[in-house]
Structure formats: structure tokens, C-alpha cells
Amino acid sequence: MKKQVDAAVETNSVLQGDYYQIVLAAPDLAATVQPGQFVHIRLPGFEHRVLRRPFSVCDADTETGTLTVVYKVVGEGTAHLARVVAGSQVNVLGPLGIGFSRPSIDSRPVIVAGGYGCAATYLLARISALPPVCLLGGRSAGDILLVDRFEALGCDVRVSTDDGSQGHRGRVTELLEPALAGEGPFGPVYACGPNPMLRAVSAIMLTRGEDAEVSLDHVMCCGVGACFACVVRLKADTHDGWKYVRTCLNGPVFKASDICWDT
Ligand SMILES: Cc1cc2nc3c(=O)[nH]c(=O)nc-3n(C[C@H](O)[C@H](O)[C@H](O)COP(=O)(O)OP(=O)(O)OC[C@H]3O[C@@H](n4cnc5c(N)ncnc54)[C@H](O)[C@@H]3O)c2cc1C
Ligand code: FES
Questions:
Q1: How far is the centre of ligand 2, averaged over its atoms, from the C-alpha of 246 (Å)?
Q2: Structure confidence by residue, pLDDT tens digits, 58-81
Q3: Is the pLDDT of residue 263 over 80?
Q4: For a Cys staple, 218 with which of 84, 185, 187, 247, CB 3.0–4.6 Å?
Q5: From the CB of 80, is ligand 1 less than 6 Å away?
Q6: pTM of the full predicted structure?
Q7: Which CATH architecture has domain 218-263?
Q8: Which residue's CA is the closest to the ligand 1 atom numbered 37?
């Protein structure tokens, strides 16, 4: 059940480049959050901007009662978040949304992640019975996150960068078919990252006659289903063959086969 809490900032520091890691004391949220869910953070001293900012949960530790979020500074809000110092408080609403399904115990999950999606799928990898194959992609090496942490879990980590500065030169989706050609069984395939990457993962999996779970990155306002700013079209048994659903409430994770990718 979602809660709104004032969480003390334990640490907030650079992870690498423009990416930061913030650790928040939020025991109730840490105890209930599921992989793929997100929290909506209101920034202290940023009241002139009323909207919260959504961030996936990277990790949750029930022993220390902490939540970890990894974020990239892309605009005013995230730049402000990067200046929040340890010891201050941020207001956190969560856990929100519907996350990834629980990984199977008899097949190996495959994670396809881009940019902050690398961090947003870490908790999923950590709770998996079998260590996933993790395909991590980004524009350049600076966008490849948490390789050491995934490897410490026993994951088979394969990296791609658009500029070839780390791993395979090209799109992370180019690693998917070769990974699935390995010794399986594999599945489910989970994806989190920019929407063009999610679209490509979906196309590959649906062409194979299989499905995937994709975490849509959609601009959000309220985060709790009240404003309809985040709607996406899903296939439905309606006159038009589709219906709108709210990403914050019915997602952000959806089955690839349910999404109307043509819009
Ligand atoms: C469910 C969900 C989970 C997310 N998890 C994470 C996470 O774990 N780590 C992380 O770094 N970011 C995450 N994001 C994206 C994050 O919410 C945005 O980057 C942030 O809200 C931008 O705020 P800002 O004020 O800094 O930027 P703004 O000033 O609002 O925008 C600056 C630039 O960022 C772009 N932008 C704004 N929102 C988004 C968005 N949702 N996705 C992509 N670009 C955006 C704008 O188009 C603009 O170009 C997530 C988004 C969603 C919807
Ligand atoms: S962000 Fe308001 S309904 Fe989803």
C-alpha cells in the first residue's frame, strides 16, 4: 500500500558522470516496494515547482530500512535533487505503479536496460532465483551503470554502447537475439530504458512469437491516476480495438503484446 513519508537523506552523491545515487531512510517503503515500481519525490526548497518527480527504485534494504534511487541530472528538478545534502528530508510517495512480474525459478531472466534503466532493474536482478542475463546499453561508457553490482550477483553482463566506448558498438537490442540463442531456457525478458529501445525489444520478442515486460518511460504529473497526463494506448476489445490506460496506475510495466506500438 502506498504511503507518503518524509525520508531522511542518508547519502546523495555522484555515481558516475551525470548520474547520482541517493539513499533514503524509508523503512515502510523498503519493506513493500516491488521491482519496477517507482516513487514520486517532492523536492525540498523546490516548492515553486509543484510537481513531484518519478524515479524507479534501484534497491531496497529491509534490514537498514533504506531505498536507493539512481538518477540522471537532465533538468531543473534533478539538478536540484543533486544539491540535496545528507541529513535533510525529502517527501516520498510510494511505492507506486505495477512493477515487473516475479522472475521464474526454472528459467533464466533476461534484462535489457538502457541508461538509468540499468539501475531501475537492479532490484529485479537481486531477487531473481537464477541470476539474469543483463544486457546493458547506453550512448557511451558513462551511461553503463552498476556492472560490478550485477556481476556480484552472478549475472551474465553484456554491454553495448552507441559509440563503442564500452562493449559491443551498436544498440543494446542487437545483443538480445544472440543472448536468447544461448543455453536456455530463458525468460521472462524484461526491459527498461528509452522508448525506442522498448519498441525494438518488443518487435524482436513479438516476431519470435514471445512476449516481454517493458517499463514505459512516460512523462508524469500526479503519479497516482488523477490527471491522465500519462495515458498510453493498450489493445482492447472495444469498437476501436484499443483503450487508454494510465501509465502511473496500470504500469509503468506492461506486456509488450498489449501495447499499441503504432502510435
Ligand atoms: C516511472 C518512471 C521512472 C523513472 N525512473 C527514473 C530513474 O530511476 N532514474 C532517472 O534518472 N530518471 C527516471 N525517470 C525519469 C525522471 O523522472 C525524469 O528525468 C525527471 O522527472 C526529470 O525532471 P527534471 O525536472 O530534472 O527535468 P525537466 O526539467 O522536467 O525536463 C528536462 C529534460 O528531461 C526530459 N524529461 C522529463 N521527464 C522525463 C522522463 N520521464 N523521461 C525522459 N526524459 C524526461 C524533458 O523532456 C527535458 O528534455 C523515470 C520516469 C518515470 C516516468
Ligand atoms: S500522472 Fe496523473 S494520471 Fe498518471
A1: 6
A2: 999 999 999 999 999 999 999 999
A3: no
A4: 247
A5: no
A6: 0.95
A7: Ribbon (2.10)
A8: 219
